[in-house]
Write a structure and sequence with these properties.
The chain is of the alpha+beta class. 47% of the residues lie in helices and 27% in strands. It has a five-stranded antiparallel sheet with strand order 1-5-4-3-2.
Length: 146
């Protein structure tokens, strides 16, 4: 009788940990603009080019009324998209299915309910190229969050 209960308890306790396994989010003391600029600089310091900056926070604010949403989630939120030709080539040669890891993205955001802190986050990649790609993303975030 105890074994099923203990098994269920262990599974329930591990769910919050599993829920965040797919992402890495790091707080920084910088304001949003400084944190975003630090991420851009860290990307460019590696000779990488930014393809696109998604202004997700602005889009959510702009469309809130149309969706009947009243809660403001972010004060600021942007997703920076970039790529590395050499790493992308290595990734797809190792496994053509790893194309799903392209392009690379890092999010920078402040929460509306906690405007004093800024977060820098990324999705943890999968596949054969996960280790190399996550190292790149982690190094960029580490440099930006200093």
């Amino acid at each position: 009788m105890r074994l099923p209960f203990l098994t269920a308890l262990l599974i329930a306790c591990s769910l919050p940990l599993q829920a965040a396994d797919w992402r890495s989010a790091r707080p920084t003391a910088d304001n949003f603009t400084d944190a975003r600029d630090a991420v851009v600089t860290a990307i460019e310091n590696r000779g990488l080019v930014i393809n696109y900056t998604g202004r997700i926070g602005e889009m959510l604010e702009r469309t809130a009324g149309d969706l009947g949403a009243t809660r403001r989630v972010y004060r600021h939120a942007e997703v920076i998209e970039f790529c590395s030709a050499s790493l992308s080539r290595q990734m797809v040669e190792a496994d053509p299915q790893d194309i799903v890891n392209c392009p690379f993205t890092i999010a920078v955001y402040t929460l509306a309910e906690a405007p004093g802190g800024t977060w820098i986050a990324y999705r943890k990649p999968g596949g054969k190229s996960a280790v190399a790609l996550e190292k790149l993303l982690r190094d960029i975030v580490d440099e930006a969050a200093r």
